[in-house]
């Protein structure tokens, strides 16, 4: 799965990356497994950059896609805790309050 996910990230294909990340388990995914897949994939992309096979723009966009996917897949409780922590630091500009 990691290789397919990396390929989708390098193509900047957010929809394909999401489908690969969740697979057939749309309702019962493990956030920890998703984080592990994202982490190892970004490490592979970073190594590709060091070796000259991946462009800096691909590294950047891969990171942005992973950030967006992880944020969207966070369990609701973790989202609310993040929002509370963030808003306590910047009360005038809350990123998300439901």
Order of helices and strands: HHHHH
Number of strands: 0
Low-confidence stretches: 79-91, 93-98
Query: What is the first-to-last residue Cα distance?
Result: 33 Å
Structural class: mainly alpha
Shape estimate: elongated
Strand residue content: under 5%
Helical percent range? Answer: over 70%
Biggest beta sheet attributes: none
Number of helices: 5
What Rg, in angstroms, do the CA atoms define? 15 Å
Mean pLDDT metric? 78
Describe the structure.
This protein has 98 residues and is mainly alpha-helical. 72% of the residues lie in helices and 0% in strands. It has helices at residues 2-10, 14-22, 31-51, 56-73, 76-89. Helix 1 runs antiparallel to helix 2. The radius of gyration is 15 Å and the shape is elongated. The termini are far apart. The relative contact order is 0.13.
Short description:
With 98 residues, the chain is an all-alpha fold. The chain has helices spanning 2-10, 14-22, 31-51, 56-73, 76-89. The N and C termini lie far apart (33 Å).
């Amino acid at each position: 799965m990691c290789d397919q996910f990396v390929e989708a990230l390098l193509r900047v294909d957010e929809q394909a990356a999401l489908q690969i990340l969740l697979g057939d388990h749309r309702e019962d995914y493990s956030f920890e497994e998703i984080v592990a897949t994202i982490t190892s994939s970004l490490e592979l992309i970073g190594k590709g950059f060091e070796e000259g096979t991946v462009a800096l723009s691909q590294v950047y966009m891969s990171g942005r896609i992973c950030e967006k996917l992880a944020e969207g897949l966070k369990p609701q409780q973790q989202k609310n805790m993040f929002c509370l922590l963030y808003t306590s630091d910047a009360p005038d500009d809350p990123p998300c309050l439901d």
